[in-house]
Design goal:
Oligomer: single chain
Structural class: mainly alpha
Strand content: under 5%
Low-confidence stretches: none
Order of helices and strands: HHH
Shape: rod-shaped
Radius of gyration: 29 Å
């Protein structure tokens, strides 16, 4: 979520507008304009950097989830196949039923992977909340 920290762009509240005070000399006004506009540029740069950081964290989260889904589904299906082979179910269970069981195990593994990914993604938020409670 991106927060807009700037004032609404209506009326006299433009980003580059610096109002001259009635008792201010031209030199003082120009110096104050330079400082205020510089502050606004630094503020916009910090907002941009924060948004890039958030975007990078989202990309990491999606990459982590896609890798987790890519590897856990087939691994759990392979483990289910090996487990059915080791217990001797290959001799007594028909092949289509065996394929269905392996597919169900792979789908359950994907659901498990999504649950694990959600838990892993919530750990940093939990740590931040814990630190905030400790400092409060």
């Amino acid at each position: 979520m991106m927060l807009d920290m700037l004032p609404p762009s209506g009326g006299n509240e433009r980003l580059t507008l610096v109002v001259r005070r009635p008792d201010e000399s031209l030199y003082d006004y120009l110096v104050r304009c330079q400082w205020e506009l510089g502050d606004r540029v630094r503020f916009l740069a910090s907002v941009r950097d924060a948004q890039w950081t958030i975007l990078g964290m989202e990309r990491q989260r999606w990459r982590r989830r896609s890798l987790l889904l890519t590897f856990t589904g087939p691994v759990i299906a392979a483990l289910a196949s090996a487990g059915l082979g080791l217990c001797g179910a290959a001799d007594s269970v028909p092949v289509p039923l065996m394929a269905g069981l392996i597919a169900c195990a792979g789908l359950a593994g994907a659901a498990l992977a999504i649950g694990i990914a959600r838990i892993i993604d919530s750990i940093p938020n939990w740590l931040v909340a814990r630190r905030a409670r400790r400092w409060a």
